[in-house]
Amino acid sequence: GCGIISIITIIVVLNADRITSLLSKDPLVVRESARYLYISAVSEPFMAVGSILIGALNGAGDTKATMIRILTSLWGVRIPLALISALVFGFGAYGVWWAMTISIIIQAILIYKRHKSKRWIKHDY
Questions:
Q1: In whole angstroms, what is the distance from residue 10 CA to residue 123 CA?
Q2: Whole-number CA gyration radius for the chain
Q3: Which of these, 60, 68, 52, lies nearest to 112 by C-alpha position?
Q4: C-alpha span between 10 and 14 (Å, rounded)
Q5: Is the pTM for the entire model greater than 0.85?
């Protein structure tokens, strides 16, 4: 899954300007949309790994621990980081985009560590 997503991501990044120009003819919109694609491309392999492992853990019945990690990355990382970077430091949309990327990476790391710990196997359901 990660390999396929990585290949698709590389294709999208290499063609970001062409892809975004299909959506708008405004050069500013095309440029900003391409920048967003570049930033979000960083998180794509992590999102693939995280999504696959989240599905595996949920399928194994480890839903509570998985949910806690997802909520931690969203409410504990993404939202505060987006607010701080956009409003306090003035990075605007770029701050929000990077906050999303960083939270996806952290979520994948948290989910990977949970999966690797194998504590979900011993869980009594």
A1: 39
A2: 17
A3: 52
A4: 6
A5: yes
